[in-house]
Write a structure and sequence with these properties.
The complex is a heterodimer of chains A (about 110) and B (about 120).
Chain A: E1 4-7, E2 10-13, E3 19-25, E4 33-38, E5 45-49, E6 53-54, E7 62-67, E8 70-75, E9 85-90, E10 98-99, E11 103-107
Parallel strand pairs in A: 2-11
Antiparallel strand pairs in A: 1-3, 3-8, 4-5, 4-9, 5-6, 7-8, 9-10, 9-11
Chain B: E1 3-7, E2 10-12, E3 18-25, E4 34-39, E5 45-51, E6 58-60, E7 68-73, E8 78-83, E9 92-101, E10 104-108, E11 112-116
Parallel strand pairs in B: 2-11
Antiparallel strand pairs in B: 1-3, 3-8, 4-5, 4-9, 5-6, 7-8, 9-10, 9-11
Classes of the chains: A mainly beta (about 110), B mainly beta (about 120).
């Protein structure tokens, strides 16, 4: 099973600041990595798939990069609606499809 | 627009059974694989099961294998999850999710809460 480790667990930032979230895989996932955003009481939303492809309707301030074992989700300038929990997820080696433990982006 | 609506959650005793449903609309259900993903209180997301579009190939997380059964009825645009021998650790919000490319979920339902407690 591929283990995904996200860091930091919590990121405290102010609106307008840049957010950089990390996801590290226990073995290579090539570029088969996605990012999801989840707000309290809501379903997750697909942001990025295959490491760097924005999903339909996702603002350009969200970008993904990386390959192999190290990946980054960057939010270039935080909007108030971006404060949420973010999960990475791999699909190269399944079952199981696995998620990281999440990074909470909170208002400083 | 794509809609996924889960139902069937509730409170069940340990060892009990429950069947979840997910009614799909706004897309050609029979053309897509479907997943169940759960979110336990205070924990992260956990993939539970996947069924391919033809309903024949099915996959499960080890934590539910042998206890949960995924199925679909393409004539009714509905996905199911039969859960038996439920344990406290199965307590979670269960989401159905549409697969856009194997293992990428582009639409999710709002979830249904399953609580396993005596």
């Amino acid at each position: 099973e591929i283990v995904l480790t996200q860091s930091p667990a919590t990121l405290s930032l102010s609106p307008g600041e840049r957010a950089t979230l990390s996801c590290r895989a226990s073995q290579s996932v090539s570029t088969y990595l996605a990012w999801y955003q989840q707000k309290p009481g809501q379903a997750p939303r697909l942001l990025i798939y295959d490491a760097s492809n924005r999903a339909t309707g996702i603002p350009a301030r969200f970008s993904g990069s990386g390959s192999g074992t190290d990946f980054t989700l960057t939010i270039s300038s935080l909007e108030p609606e971006d404060f949420a929990v973010y999960y990475c997820q791999q699909r190269v080696n399944w079952p199981p499809l696995t998620f990281g433990g999440g990074t909470k982006v909170e208002i400083k | 627009q794509v809609q996924l609506v889960e139902s069937g959650g509730g409170v069940v005793q340990p060892g009990g059974s429950l069947t979840l449903s997910c009614a799909a609309s706004g897309f050609t259900f029979s053309n897509y694989g479907m997943h169940w993903v759960r979110h336990a209180p205070g924990k992260g997301l956990e993939w539970v099961s996947f069924i391919r579009l033809d309903g024949i190939s099915k996959y499960y997380a080890d934590s539910v294998k042998g206890r949960f059964t995924i199925s679909r009825d393409n004539s009714k645009n509905t996905l199911y999850l039969q859960m038996s021998s439920l344990e406290a650790e199965d307590t979670a919000v269960y989401y159905c999710a549409k697969d856009v490319r194997i293992g990428v979920y582009d639409y999710w339902g709002q979830g249904t809460l399953v609580t396993v407690s005596s």
